[in-house]
TrEMBL record:
Residue ranges occupied by any GST N-terminal domain in the UniProt entry: 1-78
Protein name: Glutathione S-transferase
Signal sequence bounds: none
GO cellular component terms listed in the entry, alphabetical order: cytoplasm
GO terms, biological process: translational elongation
CDD domains, A to Z: GST_C_6, GST_N_3
Annotated Pfam families: GST_C_2, GST_N_2
Domain GST C-terminal: 83-204
Sequence intervals crossing the membrane: none
Species assigned in the record: Polynucleobacter paneuropaeus
Domain of life: Bacteria
Gene3D superfamilies recorded: 1.20.1050.10, Glutaredoxin
Length: 204
């Protein structure tokens, strides 16, 4: 199998971490979707990464679909519960984490891609408001628990860890670590795992 993606995409990182935690191998083929010469459209018509290419050539996307598929490939380190209610809870955590990145990316694009005179501060504030609300919800739901759900690491923790790491990379002045000490505790614990260490994005 082959993962098409970039080193800085938090969605790609989530997929790579799941592969590592499941003890499965997949080559990483780097692709810059913002490059005019990108060929990602021939694999994913939405033009997004990650995209997983299976051994038979079939393409699977997006990250939520990929990680759910990969979790079925090996019984090692089950990351998504099979029981429906627990499964929904873990996937809701993932949706919340992905939502942080979705909103953050929209805010960042507005501030970096559009000329200053065309930028909408109201739009940026709206997106960052979503980030703040999601962080607050995460902190409330985590409470004093060791993990987001249950007594061991799940996909919920991986997704949250990727979102928090991306915020540190792209919004270093947000200071969520000071405001939400329990989230920082979870983040620091995750960053000790080899899967997170091996996928640290370049500081760019």
């Amino acid at each position: 199998m082959k993962i098409i993606g970039s080193l800085t995409s938090p969605y790609v990182r989530k997929v790579r971490i799941v592969f590592l935690e499941k003890k499965l191998e997949a080559a990483l083929e780097l692709e810059n979707v913002w490059d005019a010469k990108t060929k990602i459209g021939s694999l994913n018509p939405l033009g997004k990464v990650p995209c997983l290419i299976l051994d038979d050539g079939e393409a699977i996307y997006d990250s939520r679909v990929i990680v759910e598929y990969v979790d079925t490939l090996s019984p090692v380190g089950k990351l998504i519960p099979t029981e429906s209610r627990e499964r929904a809870t873990v996937k809701t955590w993932e949706a919340l984490a992905d939502g942080i990145m979705d909103a953050g990316i929209l805010a960042r694009l507005e501030a970096t891609w559009r000329p200053a005179e065309q930028q909408s501060q109201a739009w940026i504030e709206r997106q960052m408001g979503k980030v703040d609300a999601a962080l607050s919800q995460m902190s409330q739901e985590l409470g004093e628990n060791a993990w987001c759900h249950g007594n061991q690491m799940t996909l919920a923790d991986i997704a949250v860890g990727c979102a928090l790491a991306w915020l540190l990379l792209r919004f270093p002045k947000l200071e969520w670590q000071t405001k939400y000490a329990n989230l920082d505790g979870l983040y620091q614990k995750l960053m000790l795992r080899s899967s997170f260490i091996e996928t640290i994005p370049p500081a760019a």
